[in-house]
């Protein structure tokens, strides 16, 4: 039986028994990782926007500088929490950190490119297109971090 779940594992004749390489087990782990990645993203966004508002409203920073500080703080939170809760990293901190930063920069560039192309090509409202872009970049960055930044063991 699975640990405390009452479900049979694939090896015990449960769902997915006989499937090569435990496909269902890997799919379940991938879904759990994606949920963790999504949750970490929410926390990082709260840090980003919270620092932005704090710096602008309480300390009278200009909004561009405050947004940059919020982005960096949110990125740091994202790295630490994803390393701790999302991925089973095979890379050390220094090797994973520069890769994480590159994926974040490429994600920003991909966001700009998709928005530029879609706002000109589709003519839809920019907020709808931002939602579509966010979804695309979310999935892309999840897998880029999983297989390249952290080189997840599973």
Can you walk me through this structure?
By secondary structure, the chain is an all-alpha fold. The protein has two domains: 1-86, no CATH class; 89-154, no CATH class. It is built from four helices and no strands. Helix 1 (23-57) runs antiparallel to helix 2. It starts with 22 loop residues before the first helix and ends in a 5-residue tail after the last helix. Residues 1-17 have low confidence and may be disordered.
Protein traits:
154 residues, mainly alpha, 2 domains, disordered N terminus
Q: Main sheet, how many strands, which sense, barrel?
A: none
What is the rounded Rg?
Answer: 19 Å
Tally of DSSP β-strands? 0
- General shape: globular
User: Which range best describes the helical content: under 10%, 10-25%, 25-40%, 40-55%, 55-70% or over 70%?
Assistant: over 70%
What is the mean predicted local confidence, pLDDT? 88
Class by alpha and beta content:
mainly alpha
> How much strand content do the residues show?
under 5%
Helix count from the secondary structure assignment? 4
The topology string of helices and strands comes to HHHH
């Amino acid at each position: 039986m699975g640990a405390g779940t009452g479900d049979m594992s694939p090896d015990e004749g449960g769902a997915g028994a006989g499937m090569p390489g435990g496909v269902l087990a890997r799919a379940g782990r991938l879904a759990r990782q994606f949920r963790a990645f999504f949750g970490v993203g929410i926390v990082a966004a709260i840090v980003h926007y919270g620092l932005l508002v704090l710096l602008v409203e309480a300390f009278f920073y200009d909004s561009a500088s405050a947004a940059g500080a919020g982005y960096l703080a949110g990125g740091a939170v994202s790295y630490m929490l994803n390393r701790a809760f999302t991925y089973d990293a095979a890379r050390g901190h220094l090797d994973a950190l520069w890769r994480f930063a590159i994926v974040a920069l490429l994600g920003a560039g991909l966001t700009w490119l998709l928005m530029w192309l879609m706002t000109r090509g589709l003519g839809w409202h920019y907020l709808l297109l931002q939602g579509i872009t966010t979804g695309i970049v979310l999935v892309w960055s999840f897998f880029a971090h999983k297989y390249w930044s952290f080189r997840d063991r599973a």
